[in-house]
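Example for tutorial group B:
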């Protein structure tokens, strides 16, 4: 009966196999099997194992079930025999001559053999090195394999339980294999190192290789010594690049599945910071000749930093220190250099997670550090621009949207921004890109915290007014947006308001269209209160609008620019509609009926016609009210 159970373990029917295995397990749990009975029952299976040509997947699966039940009965000789069979599968030509295997057995049988080793008595010193080498050789004969090895294979997956069982020895062995001394940096040696590196990296990334991953995390010192530190000690540029990337990739693999690991290893984090800070960003033409993996090195480092920052922000809460914020600002430098690699993920991290996800206390700490960072003489101009674009401005916008502006901006912070960033000795050294971002910052503050800026109005208008004379179009128009926001919020001399309004009406060039539109949309609703008509029938700003239409309306772009303003603010111009309707009617033909006019012009012509009708209907309705009201209230 027991012999029948043993024989049934190797059949192809899963139901029979399951019943036989359960029966054997029950027998073994109740009584110890006699040695003679075991030998006679196992002899057919062991005889088939003696010849590699008699191997089959059911046979090896049956052996796996036996090993799980009777592992103490087998010795290391079985492992040596299985290794011998594995080596035969590294020679596909010899297997083809045997003509005894089915299609697919060239992969299934080696995988079945490899999956047996974790069931044998532990002997990592005897089998580990050979198994890794044999599995690499088996991968080399698979279709699509390259000289640098594969990223993954079924052979590697079958060996994972064994590698997990001996994780410490596995990590030590593979770290030793990826060591690349400068005096041995031949092409063949570099290829062997690349294979071992990919092997270890694939295990780190594989979700079921947790023991190997945890062991590598514990062995972070050897990891540093054999990769990042070894890269600094060699003078061979190519060798150093390969070692450096291997270390960075392994650290990143750990970060993805163990996000709490890098924050707990400051030495590893500092090593990445040193690489980021010391290596010059490669020009695009230099990167084109490099392997893709090495070109992506800084992207991988950035992902490690993001993982670390993300974990720290959640774990530390409001207690984030300067180290966290310094790392946040350190990454900004990547956007100041030309590169073949896209860093969109990093921008999204700044704009979405940092700007909107950080707490009030975290944002306050970041803004205070930003002020020190901006004023430091060691900070590059480009980094100041990126700090404004990706950290300071998005944080302030998010704070204002949540109603937390006053909590984030203290009097000291506002005073520093006005006196040190928008004024002071540094102002003369700003380039146009930085001036534009500072104008955006000042405009944002005026819009959302005008009460806190009352004492700084003189400095604010001085900063923006000086930029109205800039030769750079974008800087000049950003200054106009700033001044318009200032006029909207604070009392301003009428002469200045009219000067700004007329200048914007006459600015119709395409390159300034978006900012001019924004400036006018801010200023125009404030004109009735800032420039009232007084004793005159029409206010001054209406007179100047008509004056430009009449005197400069021969320029079609100028005319379109003004009519677009009127269409966007019909209620503001309704009381003076009689001043514009005749010119609007006369210009319809020029704007929308010419054969070569654009779609936008045709749309504007339709809007003008609709506006004229709307104004007329509004006038008729208003005129009828005095006559209908007495009739409805009379006796």
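The residue assignment follows.
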């Amino acid at each position: 009966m027991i012999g029948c159970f043993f024989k049934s373990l190797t059949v192809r029917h899963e139901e029979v196999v399951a019943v036989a295995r359960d029966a054997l397990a029950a027998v073994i749990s109740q009584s110890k099997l006699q040695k003679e009975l075991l030998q006679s029952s196992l002899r057919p299976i062991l005889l088939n194992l003696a010849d590699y040509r008699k191997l089959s997947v059911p046979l090896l699966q049956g052996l796996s079930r036996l090993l799980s039940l009777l592992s103490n009965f087998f010795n290391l000789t079985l492992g040596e025999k299985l290794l011998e069979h594995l080596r035969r599968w590294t020679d596909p030509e010899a297997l083809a001559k045997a003509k005894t295997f089915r299609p697919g057995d060239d992969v299934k049988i080696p995988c079945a053999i490899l999956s047996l080793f974790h069931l044998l008595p532990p002997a990592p010193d005897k089998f580990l090195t050979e198994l890794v080498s044999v599995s690499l050789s088996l991968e080399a004969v698979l279709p699509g394999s390259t000289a640098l090895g594969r990223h993954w294979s079924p052979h590697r997956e079958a060996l994972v339980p064994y590698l997990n069982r001996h994780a410490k020895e596995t990590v030590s062995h593979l770290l030793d294999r990826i060591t690349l001394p400068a005096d041995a940096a031949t092409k063949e040696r570099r290829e062997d190192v690349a294979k071992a590196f990919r092997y270890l990296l694939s295990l780190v990334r594989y979700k079921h290789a947790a023991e190997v991953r945890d062991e590598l995390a514990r062995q972070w010192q050897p990891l540093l010594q054999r990769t990042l530190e070894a890269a600094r000690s060699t003078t061979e540029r190519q060798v150093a690049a390969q070692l450096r990337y291997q270390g960075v990739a392994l650290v990143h693999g750990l970060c993805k599945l163990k996000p709490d690991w890098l924050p707990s290893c400051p030495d590893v984090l500092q090593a990445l910071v040193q690489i980021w800070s010391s290596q010059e960003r490669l020009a695009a033409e230099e990167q084109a000749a490099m392997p893709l993996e090495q070109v992506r090195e800084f992207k991988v480092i950035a992902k490690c930093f993001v993982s670390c920052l993300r974990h720290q922000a959640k774990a530390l809460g409001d207690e984030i220190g300067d180290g966290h914020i310094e790392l946040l600002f350190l990454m900004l430098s990547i956007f100041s250099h030309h590169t073949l690699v896209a860093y969109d993920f990093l921008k999204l991290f700044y704009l979405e997670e940092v700007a909107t996800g950080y707490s009030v206390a975290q944002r306050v700490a970041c803004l205070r550090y930003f002020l020190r960072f901006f004023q430091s003489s060691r900070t590059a101009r480009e980094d100041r621009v990126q700090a404004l674009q990706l950290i300071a401005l998005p944080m302030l916008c998010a704070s204002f949207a949540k109603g937390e502006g006053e909590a984030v901006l203290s009097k000291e912070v506002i005073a520093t921004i006005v006196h040190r960033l928008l004024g002071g000795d540094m102002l003369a050294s700003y380039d146009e890109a930085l001036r534009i971002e500072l104008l955006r910052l000042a405009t944002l503050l005026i819009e959302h915290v005008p009460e806190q800026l009352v004492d700084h109005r003189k400095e604010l208008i001085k900063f923006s007014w000086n930029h109205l004379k800039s030769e750079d179009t974008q800087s000049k128009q950003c200054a106009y947006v700033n001044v318009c926001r200032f006029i909207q919020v604070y009392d301003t001399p009428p002469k200045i308001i009219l000067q700004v309004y007329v200048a914007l009406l006459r600015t119709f060039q395409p390159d300034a269209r978006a900012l001019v539109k924004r400036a006018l949309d801010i200023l125009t609703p404030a004109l009735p209160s800032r420039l009232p008509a007084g004793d005159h029938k029409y206010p001054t700003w209406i007179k100047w609008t008509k004056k430009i239409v009449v005197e400069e309306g021969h320029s079609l772009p100028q005319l379109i620019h003004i009519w677009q303003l009127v269409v966007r603010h019909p209620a503001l111009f309704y009381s003076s509609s009689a001043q514009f309707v005749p010119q609007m009617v006369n210009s319809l033909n020029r704007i929308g009926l010419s054969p070569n006019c654009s779609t936008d012009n045709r749309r504007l012509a339709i809007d003008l016609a609709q506006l004229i009708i709307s104004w007329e209907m509004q006038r008729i309705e208003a005129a009828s009210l005095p006559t209908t009201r007495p009739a409805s209230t009379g006796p």
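The two ends are 117 Å apart (CA to CA). Compare this with the pattern of hydrophobic and polar residues in the output above.
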